[in-house]
Amino acid sequence: MPICLQQPHVMGILNVTPDSFSDGGRFVQLEAALQQARQMVEEGATILDIGGESTRPNSDGVSEQLELDRVMPVVERVQAELPVAISVDTMKPAVMRAAIASGVEMINDVLALQAEGAVEAVAASDSVQVCLMHMKGEPRTMQQQPEYASVVAEVKDFLLARAACCEVAGIGADRIVLDIGFGFGKTPAHNVQLVKALSEFTALPYPSLLGVSRKSTLGAITGKPVDGRLYAGLAMATLGFYQGVKIVRTHDVAATVDVLRMVRAVLGEVEI
Description:
By secondary structure, the protein is an alpha/beta fold. The chain has 10 helices and 8 strands. Helix 2 (64-81) links the parallel strand 2 and strand 3 (85-89).
């Protein structure tokens, strides 16, 4: 069943990789991944984003088969055991097809379905949703002096163009989510400009996702290491929800759920 994006969600990050920037190696074993999934659901995550290939700066790619071997056993167990929507974080059409065939609710693609066959893989389904993210370059090189004439305008134009491409292929607007790509080919100043302008993105006819959890820009601003960026991430989540973001993607589910509840209370979206 598609995820209802009329209301906001907290998406828990589950990286089943050895080299992700924050939690690499912690959840590569199936039982460890399942325990983390259970904990995030108990804490209030309504979506889990499962990824088998790191997209941190300077990361190396992995083969289709290795990514499938990492991701699909976790997807299948989570589907069988937990009441939560599943997103699969992948750039590869083969992984998309396998995930969609298993019944996941969303594909989260940092390449915005630009890989050959990716649009077709999603369009072949009549219900799976897709998150289209902006990235300048590719993971290995994206942080090598990224430049923009106007980062807000360029990111917006790119996302709208990718959404239009998806709609032409038969992916309905109600299945499309947009992500500004915080930290993907952007300096800290670019990232801050984009968060400041989030209301311009949430005013578009597609829901927005924000993923800032523990990223290097938070460290650049606060001077904190990866494991010390919780408060900075919560500040960004607050700004995101307040400006109309429908999904915040995070490692820190329980704290972000509290942020969401407080923002919704202030906005009058929940009874006090």
